[in-house]
Amino acid sequence: MTTASWFLPMRIVIVGPGALGCLFASLLFPVQQKLSGEVWLLDHNRRRAELLNRQGILYEREGARQQAMIPVLTSPGSLLMAGPVDSILFCVKAAALDNCLHDCRPLFSSQTLPVFFQNGISHLDIRERMALEEPPVFASSSEGATLLAPGSVRHAGRGRNILGFLDSCREQPGRNQALEELLAVLRMAGLEVVSSTEMRAHLWAKLFINAGINPLTALYNRTNGQLLTSCAARGRMKNIIREAEMVARAAGIPILTDPLQAALAVCKRTATNVSSMLQDRRQQRSSEIDAINGAIVKEGKRVGVATPANEEVVRQIREMERKYGMDGTRSAG
After folding, report:
1. Secondary structure (3-state) at 33
2. C-alpha span between 131 and 181 (Å, rounded)
3. Is 242 in a helix, a strand, or coil?
4. Which helix H or strand E contains 232, and what residues bound it?
5. By three-state DSSP, how is residue 27 classified?
6. How many helices (H) does the chain have, and how many strands (E)?
């Protein structure tokens, strides 16, 4: 089968109109229109969904803007009459994932490919926890996406998207084929995507970076690059990441690159980027601290590795959330 034959019309649902969800929707929608496929956004917030259906989704990159009237639904039941979907991209926070997955279960068939774009590692047991019959796809994305307003996303920098199964699917060629078809469509949308058989290592590699950067940007109210100008922030970043690396090694996780150097490189490359946790602080939303640094603390206890630097940053972020009145309601992105 040639790559061209994989450009098939697909039915794709994107759950969560946050920065990443709006980014993927904006890029995939025109491609699927050309292929006679379909793309929908799913949002639990009815008022916001109505707004997005009126104004469309606005995509901005390098000063250029484009608008797409992507259908936004509040319930997956609206899609049931047309049958199961090919792929569901879950672009919600880890804390909201179980509820969103439960709501979307009616859309599943044995061919449906769920893809999880959550930060952290707290969702890696989702198949067992939610009793999924078929192995799902996990993803690590470094796309620079900032939500400027509801339904308005700025593509601050192109990144790399790595997708794959946690375990081998050699005995399930249909799952591998479905993943290849999705990858082909994502590439056609202009995204850099690759598949990997080492997803656990890639997810931990991103965890190191998120753990070192995200909470500190929120606590210091600084962009990624501004962390490098503070000796205190750099010192804390080093301690947080080195602890996480020790936990990973004790857990038998392969270390792909030097975690601290990778985080420093990201700070330089995305100097003006506002991290997702800093966006949470500024918009008074609950953060993903439990799925990121909190997960490192939890795993450290399991493998017998002390994590005082991560414990301290978890405590401070939770205190900040109480101070700024950040609630724990389900967030869409």
Report:
1. helix
2. 25
3. helix
4. helix 231-250
5. helix
6. 11, 12
How far apart CA 232 and CA 228 sit, in angstroms, is 9
d(CA 192, CA 247): 30
3-state class of 179 per DSSP? Answer: helix
Q: What pLDDT, in 10s, does the model give residues 204-252?
A: 999 999 999 999 999 999 999 999 999 999 999 999 999 999 999 999 9
Nearest to 64 by CA among 199, 142, 198, 155: 155
Domains of the chain: 11-197 (3.40.50.720), 200-323 (1.10.1040.10)
| Closest by Cα among 205, 273, 281, 214 to 245 | 205
As a dihedral over the C-alpha atoms of residue 125, residue 130, residue 134, residue 137, rounded to 10 degrees, the angle is -50
Residues 201 and 207: their CA atoms lie apart, in Å, by 10
11 forms beta bridges with 38
Query: For residue range 138-179, what is the model confidence (pLDDT) as tens digits?
Result: 999 999 888 899 999 999 888 899 999 998 666 577 899 999
At 196, phi and psi to the nearest 5?
Answer: -145, 145
Tokens 């931990």: give the residue: 204
Clarify whether 206 is annotated catalytic: yes
Tell me the two tokens of residue 150: 């509801």
Listed in order, strand segments (DSSP E) in 33-179 are 38-42, 57-61, 64-68, 72-73, 87-90, 113-116, 137-141, 144-149, 152-157, 160-164
pTM of the model: 0.91
Q: How many CA atoms lie within 13 A of 168 on its CB side?
A: 2
> Which entry of 93, 206, 268, 301 is annotated as an active-site residue?
206
**CA 15 from centroid of its chain's CA atoms:** 11
Which two three-digit tokens encode residue 322? 């109480």
13-43 per-position pLDDT tens digit: 999 999 999 999 999 999 999 989 999 999 9
Altogether, the residues listed in the chain come to a count of 333
